[in-house]
Design a protein that fits this description.
The protein has 289 residues and is α+β, with helices and mostly antiparallel strands. The protein is built from 11 helices and 15 strands. The strands form 4 sheets. It has a 5-stranded antiparallel sheet with strand order 4-5-10-6-7. Strands 11, 12, 13, 14 and 15 form a 5-stranded antiparallel sheet that branches. A 3-stranded parallel sheet has the order 1-3-2, with helices on one face. The chain starts with a strand and ends in an 8-residue tail after the last helix. The structure holds flavin-adenine dinucleotide. The site of flavin-adenine dinucleotide (FAD) has 30 residues, from strand 2, helix 6, helix 7 and strand 10.
Length: 289
């Protein structure tokens, strides 16, 4: 492993300054993705800017009007165990709970998860269903982007040189909306997803008022499924669920990878969508799914 310098800024602003001043600098948060890449010799930064010594970058706060703000340095475990997230955004807690294993979840940050841009990830799929936005900070400037515009493709994001992801912003969920994240792995349960489906629905007197469906890990970035509209104003019957699941499967454009061929993933998306919608229709709570 090549030698590198280590900088330990105490604020995001200082970290941005360091990254902007050196084209060979790279931010490191939990290191779970970056250090593997460095060890493989795929990236050889001269300067690593360690974000973990920044004290104010991991707060998780909720406001009924503004919604949820997750500091980019919050670990996946801090999100899955946050009482605020569990109460107001249980599907997000559910998705974080199934990331890797507890050792990884204790180190990995949500900022690193999104900035790394690996399509085989769990949290981005739920965040897509939640209409999340990201806050990006550079020297003297803060901007916001919809998550869909931040993730440009596989390992590709809208981050500019010298820019850091500082927070994830999630609008308040419509009252009464609940949902699930369902993941399938082809290896052990700790592995990255082969496919993941997030389904959120608002049901009044058995009628679905709003459905949000997102599919992730099967193509370069999570996608919202147009067939979510089919449920509006309808009872979530077995027939409707089967129809939406079939539309979800046929609308995606999966890629072949080590976790399975495209046709297999298409089939999986149909099965996972049906399961997620059945859980909602049967009124199952997150922990029962
Ligand atoms: C064995 C294993 C199993 C895994 N399984 C899963 C899984 O099941 N589901 C899943 O979703 N993920 C999984 N992951 C991925 C894991 O979630 C990510 O590696 C992790 O979230 C990255 O976060 P980090 O803080 O460690 O990032 P780092 O490794 O520190 O950084 C990753 C990249 O993001 C950049 N970066 C980090 N923070 C910021 C920031 N705030 N702003 C801008 N750029 C930043 C770094 O420069 C680097 O390019 C797994 C990883 C491993 C090693």
């Amino acid at each position: 492993m090549r030698k590198f310098e280590l900088a330990e800024p105490r604020s995001l602003a200082d970290a941005c300054f360091m990254l902007a001043s050196d084209a060979d600098a790279k931010a490191v948060a939990g290191g779970t993705a970056l250090l593997t890449i460095i060890k493989q010799g795929l990236l050889l930064p001269k300067l690593l800017v360690n974000l973990k010594k920044i004290s104010d970058g991991s707060a998780i706060t909720f406001d009924p009007v503004q919604g949820l703000r997750i500091g980019a340095l919050a670990t996946i475990n801090e999100i899955e165990t946050s009482e605020t997230v569990k109460r107001y955004y249980p599907a997000l807690a559910e998705a974080c709970h199934v990331v890797a294993n507890i050792r990884i979840r204790n180190m990995a940050t949500i900022g690193g998860n999104l900035a790394h841009g690996d399509y085989q990830s769990d949290p981005p799929t739920v965040l897509a269903a939640l209409d999340a936005r990201v806050e990006l900070m550079s020297a003297g400037k803060v901007r916001e982007l919809a998550l869909a515009d931040f993730q440009l493709g596989s390992y590709e994001t809208a981050l500019q040189p010298g820019e850091l992801l500082s927070a994830v912003l999630v609008p308040p969920m419509p009252s009464g909306m609940t949902g699930h994240y369902v993941k399938f792995t082809t290896g052990s349960s700790e592995e990255r997803p082969c496919a993941g489906v997030a389904a959120l629905a608002k049901i009044d007197d058995g009628i679905c008022r709003e459905l949000r469906l997102a599919v992730g890990a099967v193509s370069a970035k999570p996608v919202r499924i147009a067939a979510e509209q089919l449920a509006n104003g309808e009872l979530l019957t077995a027939e409707l669920i089967a129809n939406i699941a079939s539309e979800a499967a046929s609308s995606i454009d999966p890629i072949d990878d080590v976790r399975g061929p495209a046709d297999y993933k298409r089939h999986l998306v149909g099965v996972l969508t049906r399961r997620a919608l059945e859980n909602i229709a049967n009124g199952k709570t997150e922990s029962q799914s």
